[in-house]
Amino acid sequence: MATLLDKIWDAHLVHRGAGGTDLLYVDFHLLHEGSSPQAFEGLRLAGRRVRRPDLTLATEDHVVPTRGRLDPSGVAATMVEALRRNCAEFGVPLHRSGTDGQGIVHVIGPELGISQPGRTILCGDSHTSTHGAFGALAFGIGTSQVEHVLATQTIAIAKPRSMAVTLHGVLPPGVSAKDVALAIIGRIGTGGAQGHVIEYRGPAVEAMSMESRLTLCNMSIESGAKAGMIAPDAVTLDYVRGRPYAPAGKAWDDAVARWASLRSDDDAEFDRSVDIDVTDLSPFVTWGTNPSQVVELSGVVPDPAGMTDPADRRAAERALTYLDLTPGTPMREIPIDVVFLGSCTNGRIEDLRAAAELLDGHRIAPGVRMLVVPGSAAVRRAAEAEGLDEVFRKAGAQWRTAGCSLCVAMNDDSLAAGERCASTSNRNFEGRQGRGGRTHLVSPSTAAATALTGRLTAPSTLGARR
Amino acid sequence: MKPITSVTGRAVAIRRTNIDTDQIIAARHCLRTTRTGFAEHLFAAWRAEPGFPLSDPAHAGATILLAGANFGSGSSREHAVWALQDHGFAVVVASRFGDIFADNAVRSGLVPAVLAEDEVSRLMDTVEADPATPVTVDLVTLTVRTPGTESPIRMDADTRQRFLDGRDGIDVTLQHEAAIRAYELAHAPMTRAS
Ligand code: SF4
């Protein structure tokens, strides 16, 4: 009768609290330069050490430049220097900018085999939900909790509720996990999964590659979910096997046997259930300033006047003013200045391949600036081995080194005020990509098709427009 | 952390929903290694807009922020909490909070008070009509009060106790050191295999 969440929860219970707060053991803790300096400072002030440096790993991703040089300058340099000093002082392994293992924290966790079924994985970053794709319980925490995990290797937390999102049917060609994620958020809203851990299940999930599952779980936080997870199966095992942190030999066999029980029991009850048929989905794009403000690319900018909820109406009016959009405008007529392919949502090799397939042998539209930023140094190497870098360069796109880049605009990359971007990242908030910048969230294929035409374009309609 | 039993002060309302932490403080202003120095960047883009309530002198010195549903969604940056505190806020009242934001607030000593949506909007009406209205958020009785009104706020028992005691979260956890050690002895760690 237990859900996957119940099973992982119970297996990590260190202490069951009387007031509803349990103490859970943390199997692995990922760090980056953005959310950790104050946590280390707290340890120092209290005279505490990092309890388990062997279960901790840091990388540099948020503030590092992805073009021209490895280390940031100015205030960003202080952040990276602080991380390097802290990792050296407290004995935490660090994947520095420019080294083989560096990359966005949620891209390198899976690559290194740290993200494993049944694990609890935490990081001071909201998109930690990504790692749940392996059947792990993974979620983001703030800096005070980072300090708490560093000091105790545990987290004190009330158990979230469970929510099943079941995806039926078969995804049409040209429609990706990103479109599914946007469709789900559009359907349930930014608070639709609040207080819940989502378990994605059903035939359309089982048919997804590991990388698509990562994209799906990555976006869970945008519907307010604590985490997203998918029960491990053969796809999961194939991905994990042989990676640096994966168990090997007899330990692997034992792990596989253990992982077989990591699925919600047939009679398990979820606190909430949502069913979605993906068979008729088409590519999605956001029109507003939160990820639930989304329509099909074949649709039009909605009219706030037609919205019944006054708060929704006010928010939509505000969003359209910010984005400088007029109700009724077909989404595919909206011109784009910048295309960003990258981030922990869509910066993996499969994402780059999907975009390269459309760009191969073509040039992006005049006046469009396209950044291709691999999610990790390993993704960059893999792409170069396949010649994808050449495809991007020849198409007129910039081929970068690994980092968060234009997803967050706390590094060298940002939009200028008024610039409009088709972005494969996860947040279209006001100013997210730079003050006054305008963001439309899309899939990698849609990003590539858009780069070629200079307007928001669905991959399937590209032939007619190119 | 200092114990907090109640906060009384003036309140200011931002009538927007889904106020994400990027709006509270933009990422580019989080490039600091301290917990202070963020106040000037609080709602920086919005403060530049005419009529933004935080820039209204009538609301100067407010210690209680009233906001629309889903306050603090988005990025996990605790800088959002620090910036609000730096500016002088001790409480945020909303019908719903982003999960990570609420947890960060509790750990940093900023009270996230959950109040029914219609009550939030009534409270907003009151303080907009008279910015000098004293508002009390009481963690002993779990109520929010203005002269003549009283409404219940929601907060789980452990969180409330944490505010009332003002105890450090790490110290509380380390009382269970023996249990943590026992867990570690019983479970093989996940180490690098190759
Ligand atoms: S790519 Fe964007 S969302 Fe992902 S970790 Fe970096 S800043 Fe956060």
Automatic annotation (TrEMBL), chain A:
Protein family per UniProt: Belongs to the aconitase/IPM isomerase family. LeuC type 1 subfamily.
Broadest EC class assigned to this enzyme: lyase
Subunit: Heterodimer of LeuC and LeuD.
Cofactor field: [4Fe-4S] cluster
Protein's organism: Amycolatopsis bartoniae
CDD domains associated with the record: IPMI
Coiled coil: none
Positions contributing to [4Fe-4S] cluster binding: 344, 404, 407
Keywords linked to the UniProt accession: 4Fe-4S, Amino-acid biosynthesis, Branched-chain amino acid biosynthesis, Iron, Iron-sulfur, Leucine biosynthesis, Lyase, Metal-binding
Aconitase/3-isopropylmalate dehydratase large subunit alpha/beta/alpha domain span: 6-454
Database matches in Gene3D superfamilies: Aconitase, domain 3
InterPro entries from the UniProt entry: 3-IsopropMal_deHydase_lsu, Acnase/IPM_dHydase_lsu_aba_1/3, Acoase/IPM_deHydtase_lsu_aba, Aconitase_4Fe-4S_BS, Aconitase_4Fe-4S_dom, IPM_dehydratase_rel_enz, IPMI_cat
Keyword Lyase recorded: yes
Cofactor note: Binds 1 [4Fe-4S] cluster per subunit.
Biological-process GO terms, alphabetical: L-leucine biosynthetic process
Record has Iron as a keyword: yes
Name of this chain's protein: 3-isopropylmalate dehydratase large subunit
Pfam families in the record: Aconitase (PF00330)
EC number: 4.2.1.33
Gene designation per UniProt: leuC
Catalyses which reaction(s): (2R,3S)-3-isopropylmalate = (2S)-2-isopropylmalate
Source species, domain of life: Bacteria
Location of region: Disordered: 426-447
Pathway: Amino-acid biosynthesis; L-leucine biosynthesis; L-leucine from 3-methyl-2-oxobutanoate: step 2/4
GO terms, molecular function: 3-isopropylmalate dehydratase activity; 4 iron, 4 sulfur cluster binding; metal ion binding
Protein function: Catalyzes the isomerization between 2-isopropylmalate and 3-isopropylmalate, via the formation of 2-isopropylmaleate.
UniProtKB/TrEMBL annotation, chain B:
Known function: Catalyzes the isomerization between 2-isopropylmalate and 3-isopropylmalate, via the formation of 2-isopropylmaleate.
Keyword Lyase in annotation: yes
Keyword field: Amino-acid biosynthesis, Branched-chain amino acid biosynthesis, Leucine biosynthesis, Lyase
All copies of domain Aconitase A/isopropylmalate dehydratase small subunit swivel, residue ranges: 2-116
Enzyme Commission (EC) number: 4.2.1.33
Family: Belongs to the LeuD family. LeuD type 1 subfamily.
Catalytic activity: (2R,3S)-3-isopropylmalate = (2S)-2-isopropylmalate
GO cellular component: 3-isopropylmalate dehydratase complex
Pathway: Amino-acid biosynthesis; L-leucine biosynthesis; L-leucine from 3-methyl-2-oxobutanoate: step 2/4
GO MF, any single term: 3-isopropylmalate dehydratase activity
Record-linked InterPro entries: 3-IsopropMal_deHydase_ssu (IPR004431), Aconitase/3IPM_dehydase_swvl (IPR015928), AconitaseA/IPMdHydase_ssu_swvl (IPR000573), IPMI_Swivel (IPR033940), LeuD (IPR050075)
BP GO annotations: L-leucine biosynthetic process
CDD domains on file: IPMI_Swivel (cd01577)
Listed name of the protein: 3-isopropylmalate dehydratase small subunit
Listed Pfam families: Aconitase_C (PF00694)
Subunit composition and interactions: Heterodimer of LeuC and LeuD.
